[in-house]
Amino acid sequence: MSYITTYTEKHFDPLHPDAAQVDIRDIAHALSLTCRGNGHVKTFFSVGQHCINCALEAEQRGYTPKLVLACLIHDASEAYMSDVPRPFKRYLPEYEKLEDEILEMIYGKFLGEMLTEEEEMLLKQIDNDLLYYDLKVLLNEPTEGEAPKLHIPLNYEVLPFEQVERTYLELYEKWSAGLKG
User: Fold this and answer.
1) Do 50 and 40 form a contact (C-beta atoms < 8 A)?
2) Model pTM greater than 0.85?
3) Nearest 5°: phi and psi at 35?
4) d(CA 50, CA 80)
5) CA–CA separation, 70 vs 108, rounded Å?
6) What is the mean pLDDT of the chain?
7) Each residue of 15-55: pLDDT tens digit?
8) H helix runs in the chain, sequence order
9) What homologous superfamily is domain 23-180 in, according to CATH?
10) How high is the pLDDT of residue 181?
11) CA-to-CA dists, residue 38 to 4, 30, 84, 125, angstroms
């Protein structure tokens, strides 16, 4: 078998990705059940919650609907191929290539175009700002540098996956409508 069966019962082949098989419901569901930090955290905190926080932070910073939506889906490739921790990922160039290919396809499908270099930089800044707090709160990891200023309150409460999934989909609807209108 060369595919995974998704929550919506699609057959997705990560080695030959097809945009027609990508479904926001699969992404929301999978990310709401995927633990941040490869599971090495003090308490469960989903990748879905992290993506929601990134998008909410982008919205509060006054970014465009496209960039806010990009923040929501920036880890969407993990719904189809899981994630590899940052320190190890750099030794897996083929994995990174497939991850980039799937993410580009997802951006094309949901954003209509790729991010500009500036948009990528802004997204990465938000992702890194939230990683600072994730490491501190979820791992008690000493963090270097000054704490980034956030525009949203962070809540690390364990939430039912159904709630995270529903919120993710609601935010997707809100911000994807902003792209069209």
Assistant:
1) no
2) yes
3) -80, 140
4) 17
5) 11
6) 94
7) 999 999 999 999 999 999 999 988 999 999 999 999 999 99
8) 24-33, 47-60, 65-73, 78-81, 86-89, 93-111, 117-139, 161-180
9) Hypothetical protein af1432 (1.10.3210.10)
10) 62
11) 20, 14, 8, 21
